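=== RUN LOG ===
request id: a7f3
mode: sequence -> structure
chains: 1
length: 254
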Amino acid sequence: MLVLAFLLFDRANRQALYNHIIIVLLILGFVYELTNILFHLYNDYNGVPLSTSPDFYIFWVFLDYSLYSLQIALFAWASIERHILIFHDQWLSTAKKRLLIHYLPPTIIIVYYLIYYCMVYFDTPCDYSFDGYLHGGIYIPCAFDRTFLATWDLFVHQVFPTLLIVVFCVALLARVIRQKARMHRANRWRESRRMTVQLLSISLIYLLFNLPWVAIIFAYQCGLPASVAIDGILFSKFVLYNVIFFSRTLLVWQ
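=== RESULT ===
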């Protein structure tokens, strides 16, 4: 919360284009902590959920999976945009260019993901039990039980963004090292180095804590028996929660 307040209320940080996507991710993380994390803590501490209404359960799992996937997608976009900010800043030289290249893509991502997961969780009738979810497991909507939509969600919303993060972060590091000699101005180099370190450090957190989940879900979708996959799914699910905490810690450090 303090990091978010610092970025929002400090004019220089608020106006820096490379901080905008970080601010959005921090806001999503804050919402995630105030809802999903608190719901889990309340349920684990009291032995009963905050509400026993089926509508509340659906809303809970909707927040859990939609905000998780949305954060991964937005950070994948951040990995791409960082190349533009460092090496092609002339693409953002006018208000119109900034609207089309800087503001529009994350807006489209947010709208798409919210609509998609609203359709999955609220528009698809399902009578699956929430007991496993309440006891630390996961809730798989009917639309995701080894269906085409589940494969789409796995590859488009999890595997593909993760690969984008890897490819563009490695490419960014290589480009920065190769072009360091060309950045003659000290201020220009310091700003580029800061943006690079910020992205690479957070990307490392996303990859370390996201890859186990993607790998085990991929194996399950490819036929790994549920009895074998369940332990890995439970472990990787709770590992995911560390993305928010550790990425915020890195921002404080920076």
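=== NOTES ===
The chain has a mean pLDDT of 81.
The chain has one domain: 1-252.
=== END ===
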